[in-house]
Each structure stands twice: as C-alpha cells, then as structure tokens.
Design brief:
449 residues, alpha/beta, 5-stranded parallel beta sheet, 18 helices, globular, binds flavin-adenine dinucleotide, Cryptochrome/DNA_photolyase_1, DNA_photolyase_N, flavoprotein
C-alpha cells in the first residue's frame, strides 16, 4: 500500500530549489503539500497584518502551482506539532519532509515533532534551504559564534560555497484522496473592515513566478547601479527581494548563483550576508526581539512613553520630511527603503527616546518583509544595543540625511509632499535638544558597562 510523503511548507513557499520537496519526490510515493497556520504555539510570534496579507496570496499561488502539477496543498490551522501529527495519521503518510527554521521556539517544535514522528515509525528529514550557511557551521577560531559582521562574512566566504539550486519539478503527483483542508479564505488573512491593503495590491504580486521575474529584472536592469545608488530612496536601485526571501518564494541560493552568473554584485551579495548574520545572531540569541543583546542597555532610562509621539511617528506626522515620507511609504506599501528605515528608526529611538521594541513591533505589523531575525537585529543595530551595532552616540540628523540621500526631494515629493509646500509642518521635537537628552541618557549605559 502506498504511504504518501508530506512536505511541510513553512518559510519556503516555492517549488524551485526546495530540498524538502525534492526529497519527497525522490521517495517515489504520492506527495501532499501541507501548510499549518500556527498562531498560538508556545513562543511562536503571531504574524503582523501586512505579513498575513502576503501569506494569503503566496499560499494561493503555491496551491495553484502544485495543483497544475498534479499535486495538492492542504491547509490546516492550530499548534503545529499536533496538526502535523494529525495530518500524518489522516493521510496514512509514511514520511515527512521540511526545510529548517532557525528561531528558538520553532526549533523546539520541530525537534519535538521529529522525535515523536520517528518514534511512531515515520521517516522524517529536514534540509538546509533558507540560509546559505547553517548558523552553527560558522564559528570563530575559538569555536564561538560571531558578533561582528566583517569576520563573520569572511568566515562564510571561506566555507564551501552555497550549493547549486535544485531544478523546479515538472510534476508533483498527489494522492488519490487528499486529507481535508481548510479554505484559505476562511483563515481571514486579508483585511476587510477596513480593507487597508489597496497600496499593497498596487505595489506587489506575491508568489514564486513574480519573484523570479523580479530577480531577473533586477539583475538585468538594476544591479549595475546598485553600489552607486543603493542608498538613494528615490533611485529604485535595490532588488526589492526582501519579502521574496522572507517568505522563501526565492531561495538565497538561487539569488546567489544568478547574481554571480550576472557577473557582479560583491556589495549586493554582502547584503545577503547581513541577512545571514542576522539569522546567525538570532540562532544564538533567540530572544533578540525582546532583550538587549548588550545587557548594559538595560540601564537605559527610557523616559515615560509619550503615546502622542509614538502615534505621530507611526502615521508619518513627525514634521521631519524623510521620516514622514518613510513612514507613509511603509503604511501604503508595506515596505520602506533601507536608508529611510535607518533614519526613521534612529529618530524614534534617539530623538523621541522611545524604546526600540515599540518601533520593532510597528515594523513587525506593517512590513511585508517582517522577518523574525532581520527586524529585531536591525532595530538593535540602530539602537546601539545589538551586534556590531552603530555606536549609540552616532545620531542621524534626518534633515542632513534628506539633503544627502534625497537631494532633489523626489522621495519626499512622492510620499510626503506637504513638506515641500509653502507651510511645511514643524518638527515634533527639537533635534538639537533631543540629541543632547539622548546622549545624557546614554551616559547611564556607559556607566553600567
Ligand atoms: P537589497 O538592498 O536589494 O538587499 C538584498 C537583500 O539583502 C534584501 O532583500 C535582504 O534580504 C538582505 N538585506 C539587505 N539589507 C539588510 C540588512 N540591513 N539586514 C539584513 N538583511 C539585509 N529586512 C528584512 O528583510 N526584514 C525586516 O523585517 C527588516 N527590518 C528592518 C528594520 C530596520 C530598522 C532596518 C534599518 C532594516 C531592516 N531590514 C529588514 C533590512 C533592510 O532594510 C531590508 O532588507 C531592505 O531594505 C530590503 O530591500 P531590498 O530587498 O531592496 O534590499
């Protein structure tokens, strides 16, 4: 009797270069794709609103692509360990395959499930697919994890290079009768009351085919300008691949190899390196989103939170053109250019003196690329409390940053044109005074270290 194989899709919503899917196909039995919406498993961070929107569309695309190839995608909701086991029973499956996750609670779920399924006689295999270098394989000479990017990346580049991507399967034969599936619409991942996703729909087309198109277009049209223009938010010079990598519609291996074949891209590849580094740090510090990596920052005397200041920042009403433009771009599209993310985050932490965790939470809810490692890692980097972080005393001046990186005001004109009118809004706070206050607060950190 045939005992189907289950491929448990997670942050790898693709058919190409998917080692778990490849292993299931090689096993030669019918294949069942499974996605579990686990919103309240122990320690699992619930997805933000923009991420839920992306997930809906990416799952719709994946399901369609599996069906076109004779396969199926079963959708189920609940704590992953219970739901995967139940699906194995319902499908009378003989094997389960998945690509690894690297967050602490996720690893615990996966390890527990692997042991339980194996104890029940089910074959289980997991694969490296979402990172170029497994976090535990990159070590300093002393055998410890890295806390500084440059030597980390050098050590990565000294390892055997990322494997070549696996081809996309033409056929994915499913079982005669698939186990019951939820309907995607019933998960209500899309906003309805109100429907705030218009800007997301106008900006993005989630799913693997669009991801591959964007990679090709970037390599052909934009990569040559990347090093020169990547810091200019109006230049459109970056890849916009972050949500694709977040959801695994493209593997980093595919991006890596196609970039190398395109014949350039050292700087661009090192940005992929920052993604690797963020996950390396998260792997070794699973509570990166809640705890200062540098404990002396626990002594930082955050003043009492002013909710009006936080709300002004969230809505792009700080009176600082580049910050407001960025926050509006984020609200409208679920994305913000990296340079502007740094400036907006610095303004929140070092001019409004609001705890970086409040900013991280807002980004988590509003970014389509909200990423369990990249988001807290970069927030801590800006705040000064993180790995290889910007020194706290280096405080961006949002007005100078606008002059330098958006000198003709193209970006501000697009997202916050009110700043270019006759009566631009006043800054919410005085940059000089708040800078001084931030530096004074930082003295407490210094004396705690
Ligand atoms: P490109 O410049 O084309 O870079 C290519 C890829 O490299 C990106 O898609 C991304 O996967 C990776 N990358 C680039 N810069 C970084 C970086 N600084 N750290 C880690 N990976 C990087 N990125 C996310 O993917 N998810 C997040 O939740 C996220 N939150 C951030 C929060 C703050 C406060 C800051 C300052 C940055 C954050 N970033 C995050 C990093 C960066 O801003 C985005 O990855 C980048 O803007 C995405 O645009 P792109 O794909 O065009 O980048």
């Amino acid at each position: 009797m045939s005992r189907p194989s289950i491929v448990w899709f997670r942050d790898d919503l693709r058919l190409a270069d998917n080692p778990a899917l490849r292993a299931a196909l090689d096993r030669g039995e019918p294949v069942i794709g499974l996605y579990v919406l686990d919103e309240d498993g122990p320690g699992i961070r619930p997805l933000g609103g923009a991420a839920r929107w992306w997930l809906h569309h990416s799952l719709a695309s994946l399901g369609e692509r599996l069906r076109e190839r004779g396969g199926t995608l079963v959708l189920r909701r609940g704590p992953a360990d219970r739901i995967v086991s139940e699906t194995v029973t319902d499908a009378a499956a003989g094997a389960v395959f998945w690509n690894r996750r690297y967050g602490g609670p996720e690893r615990e779920v996966d390890a527990g499930l692997k042991a339980a399924l194996r104890a029940g006689g089910i074959e289980v295999s997991s694969f490296a697919a979402s990172l170029l270098f497994e976090p535990w394989t990159v070590r300093t000479g002393a055998g410890t994890p890295f806390s500084v990017f440059t030597p980390f990346w050098r050590a990565c580049l000294a390892l055997p290079g990322p494997r070549a991507p696996l081809a996309e399967p033409r056929e994915v034969g499913g079982p005669h009768r698939a186990p019951a599936s939820d309907s995607l619409d019933d998960w209500e991942l899309l906003p309805t009351r109100p429907d705030w996703a218009k800007g997301l729909r106008e900006t993005w087309e989630p799913g693997e085919p669009a991801a591959r198109r964007r990679l090709r277009e970037f390599l052909q049209e934009d990569l040559a300008n990347y090093d020169r223009a990547r810091d200019e938010p109006a230049a459109g010079a970056t890849s916009l691949l972050s949500p694709r990598l977040r959801w695994g519609e493209l593997s980093p291996h595919t991006v890596w190899h196609e970039t190398v074949e395109a014949g350039a891209g050292g700087r661009f590849l090192s940005e992929l390196g920052w993604r690797e580094f963020a996950w390396h740090v998260l792997f070794h510090h699973p509570d990166l989103a809640s705890r200062n990596l540098r404990p002396e920052f626990d002594a930082f005397p955050w003043p009492h939170l002013k909710p009006t200041h936080l709300a002004a920042w969230q809505r792009g009403r700080t009176g600082l053109a580049l910050v407001d433009a960025g926050m509006k771009e984020l609200w409208h599209t679920g994305y913000m250019h990296n340079r502007v993310r740094m400036v907006a985050a610095s303004f929140l932490v070092k001019n409004l003196l609001i705890d970086w965790r409040r900013g991280e939470e807002w980004f988590w809810d509003t970014l389509v690329d909200a990423d369990g490692a990249n988001n807290p890692f970069n927030w801590q980097w800006v705040a000064g409390s993180g790995a290889d972080a910007a020194p706290y005393f280096r405080i961006f001046n949002p007005q100078l940053q606008a002059k330098k990186f958006d000198p003709d005001g193209h970006y501000v004109r697009e997202w916050a044109p009110e700043h270019l009118g006759e009566h631009p809004p006043d800054p919410l706070v005085d940059l000089g005074e708040t800078r001084k206050a931030a530096l004074a607060a930082y003295e407490r950190v210094k004396s705690a270290s």
